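[job 4471] stage=fold_predict status=RUNNING
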Amino acid sequence: MISDATSRPGPISPGNVVSAALRIYRDQFKVYFSLSARAILWVLVPVYGWAKYAMHTGLMARMAYQTLTNEPETARQAQKQVNPKMWSFLWIGFLLAFIFIAAYIVFAIVSGVVGFIMAFVVGGLLSSVLGETGIIITSILTGLIALGIFFIGLLQLASRLFIAEVPLAMEDGIGASDSIGRSWSLTKKSIGRIQLVVLATYLVTLPLMLVTNILPQLLLLRMDPTSPAYALLNIVLIVVSIAASIAVLPFWQAAKGVLYYDLRSRREGADLKI
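[job 4471] inference complete, writing structure tokens
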């Protein structure tokens, strides 16, 4: 299971973060799957249910973290710790939504301004030399640069806030905004590694998503939307999709718990035991 490594380890590789999360999930599959099912079902209840969902996601990340520290908690023990913070978990969701909407607007404006400058300056030079070809080249370059600024900016932001709910689940005396701030602090200089962890986690879950979501949708495209078989298959696929989401959610939260522990180990000198 878990064994001591060194008292001051280097960072875990992204692949090992994912492997550790997968093993933690596998060893307690029934517990995590049950928690995930409750979380997904709570989504159907407005506001209060959303808070319960957010609390359960933090709970799963906490349990993964505690497993790494060789101080494992049962679901009941972990829930006693995170349940009083339920509304703070919901508030984190609202704050993150506001941050990303604001960032979307800012990056869109910045990319638009840069694109305009590129089109005006570079376009004028290239068009005078290459004519219509220069205009085409300028349009392509302007579009690529503007999109690059927009998507890279959002990707960087998402990486810095990837574990935003985990500090709230783990640390005493902090609120929603403090937890977001902790995520921002811990992920400093680790953006590339976080993105690799996200990519590796996504690739692990991709086959299940292909089988339960993408391929069935392609099958529906070949059927008559007005037929009873189409309606029945659509209902079945919705159920299967929900089941797949229940199965995947704990894996993502376990990965966040492992990543949070790794980041704390490197930045704050905690012992890593994995």
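[job 4471] summary: The mean pLDDT is 87.
[job 4471] exit 0
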